[in-house]
Write a structure and sequence with these properties.
Largest interface: A-B, 59 and 60 residues
Oligomer: heterodimer
Number of domains of chain A: 2
Order of helices and strands of chain A: HHHHHHHHHEHHEHHE
Largest sheet of chain A: 3 strands, parallel
Distance between the termini of chain A: 49 Å
Structural class of chain B: mainly alpha
Number of domains of chain B: 1
Strand order of the largest sheet of chain B: 2-3-4
Strand order of the largest sheet of chain A: 2-1-3
Helix content of chain A: 40-55%
Strand content of chain A: under 5%
Helix content of chain B: 40-55%
Number of strands of chain A: 3
Shape of chain A: elongated
Strand content of chain B: 5-15%
Order of helices and strands of chain B: HEEHHHEHEHEH
Chain lengths: 230, 178
């Protein structure tokens, strides 16, 4: 067996060997974690793996993905070990084609087509117009419409793609509030996604690109305020 | 940038929206999403704990806390993208803790200020653990409690004109057959 070198430079998880001393192995993290025991794992063991140089084994395991990155372990840790940060980093080190489920595919879709589910612009605009008509005619909110790309609007609103895709009527909750408050708001016609799955796939680079788009919308449409109802 | 909490609170405090408390009479609790609580505190030094409770209580008279809550709250079980991931049994197992917390309150309605948490509680935990509880988004609760001050003829006319102009500009034909 080859000896392992463990330090900030060698370790893929960037866990310094002193973690082995910093972590008391008290198990406070594991005791408060709802998935302790699954696959024989828990946050304490994950920290131990990293401190012992088993980076790749942790990256390849299901644990960082079954963990919901809720951060309860890290908050409770008496020694300030950044468990959450480490587990998210383990996610980011997984080969992209081995990221479980649709999360990475959603990121790619968003980068290419402007939202996680690939909803085309025409369909989106038709849906907004159709729902606006319903609000005006059937829901007792006469004069309502969903303003698209409205320059100078007070608030720019992003959209969770699951709503136009599968639960379109749920968009009306906010619309109803805006109607009652007589808010001057708008939604971008393209690249309106408010759900940034890079946060979950550990993909900081894509995350930055997607956030940058929202900032561009704010500048282009001269909106003072961003509401990210996600 | 404003959070949904700050915006809703401002609307209510300044009287831009009015709410009817008599619509939701059932015992109601609030779930603390990790991202608006613990993780917000860690990343930005700011968490939204009191705002969702205050907003909820502007819509509901009967309120009950879950325990533990705020910084020690339990995740719904679907955070970190778990709602979309192929580990369904693990996600439900995780959620048993949230389900127990909800059951212990005896609440009939739970307010979720997060899309993910709402889906997990409403579409999964309620069924799996037979919770008999209604789930609403925070903004859904507010929308359902609104007393809307009717728009004037002029406001309606202006809205209709803007809507038609936008449909024309975007070439949206609502009579089109699909």
């Amino acid at each position: 067996m080859e000896p392992l070198t463990i330090n900030r430079k060698e370790s893929r998880l960037r866990v310094a060997p002193e973690w082995a001393d910093v972590c008391f192995t008290c198990g406070t993290c594991a005791g408060g974690c709802p998935i302790t025991g699954i696959d024989g794992m828990d946050p304490r063991k994950a920290v131990r793996m990293a401190a012992l140089g088993l980076d790749q084994e942790l990256i390849d395991s299901r644990f960082p993905w079954i963990c919901t990155l809720c951060g309860r372990c890290e908050y409770a840790c008496p020694q300030g070990v950044e468990i959450l940060k480490m587990l998210r980093r383990a996610r980011g080190l997984r080969e992209r084609d081995k990221v479980p489920g649709p999360i990475h595919k959603g990121v790619v879709m968003d980068l290419e087509r402007g939202n996680n589910l690939g909803i085309p612009k025409d369909d989106f605009l038709f849906l907004l117009a159709d729902l606006s008509k319903e609000m005006d005619e059937d829901d007792g909110l006469p004069g309502f419409y969903a303003p698209v790309d409205k320059k100078g609007a007070n608030i720019l609103v992003t959209v969770n793609s699951k709503e136009p895709f599968g639960e379109p009527d749920d968009m009306k909750f906010w619309w109803k509030i805006f109607y009652a408050a007589r808010e001057d708001w708008t939604v971008p016609s393209e690249q309106w996604e408010g759900v940034n799955w890079g946060l979950f796939s550990g993909d900081d680079e894509s995350m930055k690109t997607l956030v940058g788009r929202i900032v561009e919308h704010l500048e282009r449409l001269e909106c003072k305020t961003l509401l990210l109802p996600e | 940038m404003v959070s949904i909490f700050e915006l809703l609170k401002e609307y209510i405090e300044t009287g831009r929206i009015k709410l009817d408390k008599s619509i939701h009479k059932e015992l109601t609790t609030v779930h603390d999403p990790c991202n608006y609580g613990r993780k917000g505190m860690k990343a930005f030094g700011e968490a939204f704990f009191e705002e969702p409770r205050w907003i909820t209580q502007q819509c509901c008279e009967n309120y009950v806390e879950m325990h533990p809550n705020r910084m020690n709250n339990f995740c719904c079980g679907a955070g970190g993208g778990a709602w979309a991931m192929p580990y369904e049994a693990e996600r439900i197992y995780y959620g048993r803790v949230k389900a127990k917390q909800l059951m212990d309150t005896k609440a009939k309605m739970v307010i979720a200020p997060c899309h993910n948490c709402r889906d997990q509680i409403m579409k999964s935990l309620t069924k799996e653990f037979d919770l008999g509880i209604e789930t609403k988004y925070l903004w859904e609760l507010v929308a359902d409690s609104l007393i809307i001050d009717p728009w004037t003829e002029e406001e309606i006319k202006k809205g209709n004109e803007l809507r038609e102009a936008q449909n024309e500009k975007n070439e949206v034909d609502l009579d089109q057959e699909w």
